[in-house]
Amino acid sequence: xxxxxxxxxxxxxxxxxxxxxxxxxxxxxxxxxxxxxxxxxxxxxxxxxxxxxxxxxxxxxxxxxxxxxxxxxxxxxxxxxxxxxxxxxxxxxxxxxxxxxxxxxxxxxxxxxxxxxxxxxxx
Amino acid sequence: xxxxxxxxxxxxxxxxxxxxxxxxxxxxxxxxxxxxxxxxxxxxxxxxxxxxxxxxxxxxxxxxxxxxxxxxxxxxxxxxxxxxxxxxxxxxxxxxxxxxxxxxxxxxxxxxxxxxxxxxxxx
Amino acid sequence: xxxxxxxxxxxxxxxxxxxxxxxxxxxxxxxxxxxxxxxxxxxxxxxxxxxxxxxxxxxxxxxxxxxxxxxxxxxxxxxxxxxxxxxxxxxxxxxxxxxxxxxxxxxxxxxxxxxxxxxxxxx
Amino acid sequence: xxxxxxxxxxxxxxxxxxxxxxxxxxxxxxxxxxxxxxxxxxxxxxxxxxxxxxxxxxxxxxxxxxxxxxxxxxxxxxxxxxxxxxxxxxxxxxxxxxxxxxxxxxxxxxxxxxxxxxxxxxx
Lengths: 123, 123, 123, 123
Prior knowledge:
homotetramer; mainly beta; 1 helix; globular
């Protein structure tokens, strides 16, 4: 096995991008997907909100034997869906082959950055 | 499956709210519960302490297909139970349908914030 | 089930206690054990090192329905064993009843604190 | 059981080493492997990238009953493979006996350090 087919990221929350004293870093969230298989992974992303119906089935691909990452402000991935800065949401990331998913957030809202990292949850 | 029915948060600890140099953030803890099911989740929260009997069965609801979050100083949730700043406690979060639970803490006790994030533990 | 009987903390490392600009916090590591059972948990702690044989079977108790925590500089727990500041070690925490174990570190080596938190690993 | 035989670290990323105001710490990543068995663990490390084929089978040993750690800029481990600062990669750590794997990163890109810690993922 090379991971799982369904992963949950509960605490999605976009930090501001350019506030604070950071010179080299930009505040962001990043979803990283590792595909150790010899086939491409066809991924679908469902986005859940506190106060509206989920947006389901956003497509994403990870080539065979690659790690690929996207930021949550990437309109090539999320297209019509704008995940606003400061709004809570969750992700369910579903793949047709086993993958491993990790989430990272870098917050530079103050003069010094704060990191947050969690593995996704899989069952 | 969309998660588990029982989750543990071991390290509950409320940071001070307004100390330090933060302008945009308030020190807090937050419990986030993702319900990907088509039924409402009826949740019960048990609070464990170092030195007294647990307080059990605090009710909370998460609507179908929603992420909901509460802070540990929310008296609408905890009602008579005051979780004091600086006191250690643990939570067991039990649901009648599968959910995924994550915990976050933002500490602004000093001039710059410190993040802490963990998935709950489920068995 | 209320957790597991064996937990691993891989990255044990005591930070300095009083360096940096912290006024309210003391640099420390903390091991937190949640016992939701109606019986006392009899715990044994094994300490592993990079370059010497492990020290095994340090006893610890967690009363029924309680969360208990100890710091790694607590000589009441570790007695003859001094875990030096800045030395790498790992812990295996074994209990006769199911418990949940979390690890936290607060580093104040610089002017602002840095948090680190992980669940233990259980199998 | 003393862990698992295969672990994934998705978010590998080397921070700069000497930037920022840190005096006592050097920015780094560290992989920690705990071997609680009575036999030596023969480990092989596979490194995955966003844009090239993986480098597989880098050998590493952990003696019986020891915790061992290596930094990702350690050329004794990675030999010909230079993991560049600021480049994304992932690791699959495979062992012939059960081990537990944790990942840590210390970023001192700004005046104050930021910690990141996760258990590896095992299946």
